[in-house]
Specification:
This protein is of the alpha/beta class. The protein is built from ten helices and eight strands. It has an eight-stranded mixed sheet with strand order 1-2-4-3-5-6-7-8, with helices on both faces. Strand 5 (86-91), helix 3 and strand 6 form a beta-alpha-beta unit. Residues 20-192 form the AB hydrolase-1 domain.
């Protein structure tokens, strides 16, 4: 379904009834990141998945990108659907949007769930600097299809993950080059800084033992949040919602049930 917000159209799906779960995907992907969550959670919740601007079937503007704009899109989506409160779950880039939403529009959040992400993409030290430099160079010299192959292999390198790898690569390589490039560079310029300490929303941070950033990186920002806990899922890489969906769903369910 399409909905008009902020001078663009967002493509979204709306499943189930109950308390609202809004699921936000990662960079260069789509709402299909959540294929393993929608059937599980829509039995007990109203689950909304959306293609963020520049991604999937949503509008791909020429220049209008950035976490702040994506956050405004999400706020207007909730307004259009007359949703007053939601648990916002953000994976990777979606986590940045979820963080920004919790900082800027806390009254909309029932809970905040951050998945293999962080509050300061612009202040990740050497990891962030290398990512920005290497990925930008890779894009400019080898192109998006080669980058899609590389990213997909890094996320799903094991033999038994070949189907997951191929499916993610297909999804990633059909991105609009300009939309991907501007989404990436604006993401890497974004950060909450000191505003993180003002977030009061009940928060779950989910990390993977083999993510790009180590456990201590996540623990450090969990300690700066007022009401947050950290769970690390074993035998998982960056895309935990895809490579360990049962374990992820269980942890999210426990958190939603206040266990």
């Amino acid at each position: 379904m399409k909905i008009k917000v902020n001078d663009i159209e967002l493509d979204y799906e709306d499943h189930g009834k109950g308390h609202v779960l809004l699921l936000l995907h990662g960079l260069g992907s789509t709402k299909k990141d959540w294929d393993a969550q929608v059937p599980f959670f829509s039995k007990s919740h109203r689950v909304i998945i959306v293609d963020l601007r520049g991604h999937g079937a949503s509008t791909k503007p020429q220049d209008a990108y950035g976490v702040e704009l994506m956050t405004e899109d999400v706020k207007q989506l909730l307004d259009q659907l007359s949703i007053k409160k939601a648990t916002i779950v953000g994976f990777s880039m979606g986590g940045a949007v979820a963080f920004e939403m919790a900082s800027k529009h806390p009254e909309y959040l029932e809970n905040l769930v951050i998945v293999n992400s962080g509050p300061d993409f612009n202040n990740m030290g050497k990891i962030g600097e290398d990512l920005l430099k290497n990925r930008t160079e890779f894009l400019e010299t080898k192109g998006l299809k080669a980058l899609a192959k590389e990213i997909s292999f890094n996320m799903f390198p094991e033999d038994h993950q070949i189907d997951l790898r191929n499916e993610f690569e297909e999804r990633c390589k059909i991105n609009d080059y300009n939309a991907y490039y501007k989404s990436f560079t604006t993401l890497m310029a974004w950060g909450l800084g000191k505003k993180i300490k003002d977030i009061k929303t009940r928060t779950l941070v989910v990390g993977s033992d083999m993510d790009y950033t180590p456990e201590y990186f996540k623990q450090a920002y969990v300690n700066r949040l007022q009401n947050a806990s950290l769970v690390i899922i074993k035998n998982s890489r960056h895309a935990v919602v895809i490579d360990q969906p049962e374990a992820f769903n269980l942890e999210l369910q426990k958190f939603l049930n206040h266990e």
